[in-house]
Design brief:
It is built from eleven helices and 93 strands. It is mainly beta and about 1300 residues long. Helix 1 runs parallel beside helix 5. The chain has a 20-stranded parallel β-sheet that branches. A twelve-stranded antiparallel barrel has the order 76-77-78-79-80-82-84-86-88-91-92-93. The chain has a six-stranded parallel barrel with strand order 13-15-18-21-19-16.
Length: about 1300
């Protein structure tokens, strides 16, 4: 169970931020240019605009202050002095200038002009036309603006701006304002200028959702797509790009932050961002560039004195082009990918952090191999090592390191050898996650640190000697991290490897030399794991060097009397003798593969030898004289048991007690050199002692000690837990927590939290907690899970479901249901699918509950509780139950949020068996995830029971609304309700606001509630019977006097693209008939036949895909009589069909099996209107009735159909006789079959057409003798709604 819930939390905290490693290969310049050109040709509305002259338009100098006054479609404004402009709007509200063409020309050195200007808070001005702005004779480009915002106003361009020697959009220097180039907007810069200038007042913002093009820059001039600039002083600006910026050629930049002390800019490149050109960061600026979802590549140029920070996140895939030597102060990659070279000519990184979900893809290796990397040079050997140096500090924090597009596990070098020529430092920190490299070299200028819960595995680790400059390598293993290196070598004694709280796993050869522990190692605290054989005879000389750490040796060996090295696998507790003769175990070592044999005394007790540090397992031997005395093992000092996955203490039972006294019992190890984990059914006791679980999975019966510490890589499962304090850095599942305070910094679970006990999240950590279903005592009473205090703060997760996806579902549901009201970083999230029972004095506090907690259930404002509504509405249980279940809902700016997930039907839901303390109607706190269901208030007199009713506004079509309302009735078919709920969850079925079905969504409902129609089940029945009836008619007409047997094999392919209105069906039917008949008297005959076959059909043109697979069999009888040239025939058939309807709607299965039947009666008259020697013309007419009955589909009934058709047609036959006596009779026929009975099926959304008039043309030939005949025919049927039927028959008969 514990493993399961660990997966739950790991999954939700992991996969929510994992970036796709299969991201597309980054764009390159050439490819991007071609793609951009093709896109521009395809989208004329966003193409760069050229300059147009205002030919034929009179010049004007008149200014406007109202949009309504612009009565002309075209204006040519000229300004020769002053700082005014053409249009200035200062009236609050939204103003739109639609479809105007405006030319603005400024002349004179002091002239400042603009086309459109908005000024004032609450003023928004939008352009949808064309603006041509230029600096004429003597005027300055930076003084002429196409659109300008000031005083807190907003200007938006949804048209075209062409800035020739001018600026497209800008902000003023007064109050922070906003400018935006909209999704339809284009800005083109010609000669010199900028598309968007973001300067002016600090705090101003700009957005580009359209296209900015800088082209045709004059020689010696400049052009910027976006220019961010301010005077010296503290100024902050934010620019967001979700569109295209193209700025190529000399003097052009796509985005430029110009030099200016105190200028701070934030640049956000989001999902739609595409940049073709240079992003340039000037000197003395402070810039943050956030790549948030963009998939792009560009040139980045950053001055040395700029403070430039790059963040790659939100699935961004960013490539930095080579050759720019950009100076980048810090890079953080989280849930995104950065592709870049670390050659200094390309990029100069100072700090790089690769966090969870991030990928740093380094373009190529940069060390090792030959000096010349010209493949044609003599002795060329390619680089084989990744060098991290040049003053850079790299941190791997759960993300991945790639080289040339693949995860890198090769050779790595940190720092270099410090000498007079080169003193370049390098640092690598492994902060979180698991990493492995073939080899690692740490130069004298390098540092390597492992920390947190990180793990680093190396094939070998080599450390340089001291540099000429006196530099020496430093390696630090701290926190709970682990460094694994089979071989560690030092060139001299100056490089240092310090273990301070972490774990180092290596070999004796790496640690020891002839003098003992190598001077390179500083062992302060933590664990040293020895993965090879530790020779016990050498230990005494080095033991004191390891006094600060725990030494776990996978294999300890000693020399026997013959001088052979033998592994110690058994140690006797009494005298520490071992399985090696004359060799005793010594202290200071945890024997990773040895069992400690303990002989119990007459009281069934024993003391663990205090000289021993630890073993793999303990084995107890019962004393024969102890009687019924319970086993007791007492620690005399700190002791460690690693476990081997089986019994930690073999020979023990549930009554066995391990008394720790005031000492520490450690289970497992942080070292991976030895197996950890196991089970002990007894009790670990000692209220003054401590239990530390360092690694592995341990199952313990009872723990009753003063302190419990569970390490990051450890998992403790215990039936009964009593402590003073416990700290959980790994995971804990306790069936019953009886006493103490348990602080959870990672994961924990319990079934019962007793009165007086507390489980809480850490002060600075989020806790993930699983509450198991409440136990039932011997009297059948439910035992409250929370009798003590459960207090979970910000960002904690709680679930009552142990499956590996409940919390991931809860987070996804909360994000979709609440949108921006949900904060993944700070909200506490619970998933509740079974009652949480609170004891009389219990308290459950979820989120940042303020003040005196006071008992009961309190959901804070930063809490989100996702409830499996269907479970509680069906079971009648309350979400919170018990004597202490009074509920308080946090309110304020943000209410506590309750989300009803899996809400499938109307009815009532009980939030609690107690009172809701602070609100009369909790509806405002509750969000439904079902589009069709909404809160209708509370049950009268019971505010804790909320009423769920149909949301009338969710469906516009009355028939569809009625059907959905009926399906969602309490107690209705669950499968139908699940489908309806799923339809309402799909964006493609909703309007833009997401609060009502669109036409496609309504059609999806119609198709589903009439699934047997949509899948073609009715037509499968009708068409199958039609094939059988056709074969019967032909046989009835062909039957001769005497006893005959016959067979007919048929195939039908039928389709109609719009028979059902917006959709149709197609089918293939295969079958055959076997019959016998008897002809007697003057042209009379009777017969019977058996039919069998199968068919498969598919919906066509439907919103959701449906299918029908059918097997059928039938019985038929028929008779006929000739009266001269007139023949009367009749038949009766009964057909049974087993149908499997398949399909899915909105990702939910709509499959079902149901039966259908067809009963058919038909009569027909054929008249030989002309009969010559070789030719016959036979008109015919008839009537056929068929009753089609299909079982209800998931409780949705559809009426029986009574089909009546009156086929009328004519057959033309030829009769020829061959020389051998065979008769050959070709024939053609044309028949119209008008329908006069039911053509529609009545469903809960109304009548649906399934049958229409059909017109058939057929051709065939019969051949044979009087006794044996064969026939082959083809019939084509057609009609309205794209009706097309193709039928093939092959028949044979024999007359006795």
């Amino acid at each position: 169970m514990n493993r399961t819930f660990k997966v739950v939390f790991s999954k939700v905290r992991g996969t929510m931020v994992v970036a796709s490693e299969a991201a597309a290969t980054p764009h390159k310049k050439a490819a991007k240019t071609v793609i951009a050109a093709a896109a521009a040709l395809a989208m004329g509305t966003v193409m760069a605009q050229g300059w147009a002259e205002p030919d034929g338009i009179d010049q004007t100098s008149e200014r406007y202050t109202s949009v309504e006054d612009l009565t002309q479609s075209r204006y040519n404004y000229v300004q020769s002095e002053g700082t005014t402009g053409f249009v200035s709007i200062s009236t609050e509200g939204d103003h739109v200038i639609e479809g105007k063409e405006i030319w603005v020309t400024a002349t004179g050195s002091d002239t400042q002009s603009h086309a459109l200007h908005a000024n004032g808070t609450g003023v928004k001005l939008t352009n949808t036309g064309k603006i041509y702005i230029q600096a004429g004779e003597g005027a300055k480009s930076w003084s002429q603006k196409g659109m300008m915002a000031g005083g807190g106003a907003t200007v938006v361009n949804e048209g075209d701006i062409v800035a020739k020697n001018a600026y497209g959009m800008t902000v003023e220097k007064d109050v922070a304002s906003h400018i935006e180039n909209g999704v339809n907007g284009t800005i083109t810069v010609l000669d010199q200028g900028a598309g968007i200038e973001l300067g002016g007042e600090s705090g101003s913002t700009a957005v580009n959702n359209g296209k900015i093009t800088v082209s045709d820059i004059a020689e010696g001039s400049w052009g910027h797509g976006v220019l961010i600039k301010a005077d010296d002083g503290a100024s902050t600006f934010t620019f967001t790009n979700n569109g295209e910026i193209s700025a190529t050629g000399t003097g052009a930049s796509a985005i430029e932050v110009q030099a200016g002390t105190g200028t701070t800019a934030e640049i956000n490149l989001i999902e739609g961002s595409q940049i073709d050109g240079i992003v340039k960061i000037g000197a003395n600026t402070d810039v943050i560039l956030n790549a948030q979802g963009t998939n792009d590549s560009f040139d980045l140029q950053v001055e040395e004195t700029a403070n430039f920070n790059l963040n790659v996140k939100d699935d961004a895939n960013l490539t930095l082009e080579n050759g720019n030597g950009a100076s980048i102060d810090s890079v953080t990659i989280e849930n995104g990918r950065l592709n870049a070279s670390i050659w200094q000519d390309d990029n100069k990184f100072k700090q790089v952090r690769v966090s969870e979900g991030g990928i740093f893809n380094i373009e190529k290796l940069n060390s090792g191999g030959s000096q010349s990397q010209d493949p044609s040079a003599e002795g060329y050997v390619p680089h084989d090592t990744l060098l991290l140096a040049y003053g850079a500090d790299y941190t791997l924090d759960g993300g991945k390191l790639y080289v040339a597009g693949s995860e890198f596990n090769g050779n790595i070098k940190v720092g270099v050898y410090g000498d007079e020529k080169s003193h370049t430092t390098g640092a690598l920190t492994i902060a979180d996650g698991d990493y492995s490299f073939a080899t690692m070299t740490v130069g004298s200028t390098g540092t390597l640190t492992t920390q947190g819960g990180a793990s680093l595995t190396l094939g070998s680790l080599h450390v340089y000697k001291v540099g000429y400059d006196g530099s020496a390598a430093g390696i630090l293993v701290e926190g709970n991290s682990e460094l694994n290196a089979e071989k560690i070598t030092f060139e001299d004694g100056n490089g240092k490897l310090t273990v301070d709280g972490g774990t180092l796993n290596t070999t004796t050869g790496s640690l020891l030399d002839d003098k003992g522990l190598k001077s390179n190692f500083i062992l302060t605290s933590g664990t040293v794991g020895i993965s090879d054989t530790l020779d016990l005879s050498k230990w005494s000389a080095v033991a004191s060097s390891f006094s600060g750490v725990t030494v776990v040796a996978d294999e300890v060996a000693a020399q026997n009397a013959d001088g052979q090295l033998v592994e110690i696998t058994e140690i006797n507790n009494a005298d520490l003798s071992t399985n090696v003769d004359d060799v005793k175990a010594v202290g200071g070592i945890v024997y990773g593969s040895a069992v400690l044999n303990v002989q119990l005394d007459e009281q069934n007790a024993a003391n663990i030898n205090s000289a021993l540090k630890g073993v793999q397992t303990v084995a107890l031997t019962q004393n024969a004289d102890a009687g019924d005395a319970q086993q007791a093992v007492n620690l005399q000092g700190d002791f460690q048991i690693l476990g081997n996955g089986t019994d930690v203490v073999s020979g023990s039972n549930e009554g066995t007690t391990v008394n720790v006294g005031t000492h520490t019992l450690t289970l497992g190890s942080t070292s991976s050199v030895s197996t950890s984990g196991g089970s002990f059914a007894g009790t670990i006791a000692g209220t003054g002692g401590r239990l530390a679980v360092e690694g592995g999975v341990f199952n313990i019966g009872t723990v009753n000690v003063g302190t419990v510490n569970i390490g990051e890589v450890a998992n403790l499962r215990v039936d009964n837990l009593s402590v003073t304090t416990a700290t959980v850095e790994g995971s804990l599942f306790a069936q019953n927590i009886h006493a103490g305070t348990v602080t959870v910094n990672n994961m924990a679970g319990f079934q019962t939290l007793a009165e007086g006990a507390t489980l809480k999240s850490g002060d600075d950590e989020a806790a993930d907690v699983y509450i198991a279903k409440a136990a039932v005592d011997e009297q059948g009473e439910v035992v409250p899970q929370i009798q003590g205090t459960l207090n979970l703060k910000s960002d904690s997760y709680l679930t009552t479901n142990g499956s590996a996806g409940s919390l991931e579902r809860a987070v996804n549901v909360a994000q979709k249901a609440l949108g921006d009201k949900f904060n993944l970083e700070t909200d506490a999230v619970a998933y509740v699918d079974q009652s949480i029972v609170i004891g009389e004095n219990g308290g459950f506090y979820f989120g940042n509950v303020q003040g005196d907690n006071g008992g009961g259930v309190k959901l804070a404002t930063n809490s989100v509780t996702v409830i499996d509504a269907d479970h509680f509405m069906q079971s009648g249980e309350s979400v919170f139950a018990g004597d202490g279940a009074d509920l308080t809902l946090g309110g304020g700016e943000t209410n506590a949020r309750i989300v009803l997930d899996n809400l499938l039907s109307k009815g009532t839901l009980d939030l609690t068996t107690g009172d809701i303390v602070n609100v009369n109607d909790p509806s405002g706190y509750i969000t439904s995830t079902n589009l069709f269901l909404e809160l209708k208030g509370t049950v009268e007199g019971d505010p804790s029971s909320v009423v769920i009713g149909f949301n009338e506004g969710a469906v516009k079509d009355a028939a569809v609304a009625g059907a959905v309302d009926q399906i969602l009735t309490a107690g209705g078919n669950r499968k139908n309700q699940i489908v309806i709920n799923a339809i309402g969850q799909q964006d493609e079925f909703l309007n833009a606001a997401g609060d009502q079905l669109n036409g496609r969504g309504e059609q999806a409902v119609k198709e589903f509630v009439a699934a047997p129609v949509t899948a073609g089940t009715y037509n499968m029945a009708y068409d199958s019977m039609e094939l059988i009836s056709n074969a019967l008619i032909q046989r009835n007409l062909d039957a001769k006097k005497g006893l005959g047997v016959w067979a007919d094999v048929f195939y039908g392919s039928n389709e109609s693209d719009s028979l059902y209105g917006d959709s149709g069906y197609s089918s293939d039917i295969y079958g055959g008939m076997l019959g016998v008949d008897f002809g007697f008297g003057e042209g009379a005959r009777v017969g019977a036949a058996l039919s069998i076959g199968s068919g498969d059909g598919d919906s066509e043109g439907s919103v959701s895909k449906y299918s029908t697979d059918s097997d059928f069999w039938g019985l038929s009888v028929y008779a006929g009589k000739d009266f001269g040239g007139l023949t009367f025939t009749g038949d009766m058939s009964y057909l049974w069909l087993d149908n499997d309807i398949g399909g899915s709607v909105a990702g939910v299965s709509a499959s079902e099996s149901l039966d259908s039947t067809v009963f058919s009666l038909g009569v027909r008259a054929d008249w030989k209107a002309y009969e010559g020697k070789v030719l016959q013309v036979v008109p015919h007419a008839g009537v056929r009735w068929a009753s089609i009955d299909v079982d209800d589909y998931r409780g949705l009934s559809m009426d029986k159909m009574n089909v009546i058709e009156m086929p009328i047609g004519v057959t033309v036959k030829g009769v020829f006789e061959t020389a051998s006596g065979w008769q050959v009779a070709p024939e053609i026929d044309f028949t119209a079959a008008p329908q006069i009975g039911d053509t529609e099926v009545e469903t809960i959304i109304g009548d649906v057409d399934v049958i229409d008039n059909v017109y058939n043309a057929s051709i065939g030939v019969n051949a044979g003798t009087d006794a044996v005949r064969f026939g082959l025919s083809y019939k084509y049927g057609f009609g309205n709604d794209g009706r097309s039927n193709n039928t093939f028959n092959l028949k044979a008969s024999y007359l006795f």
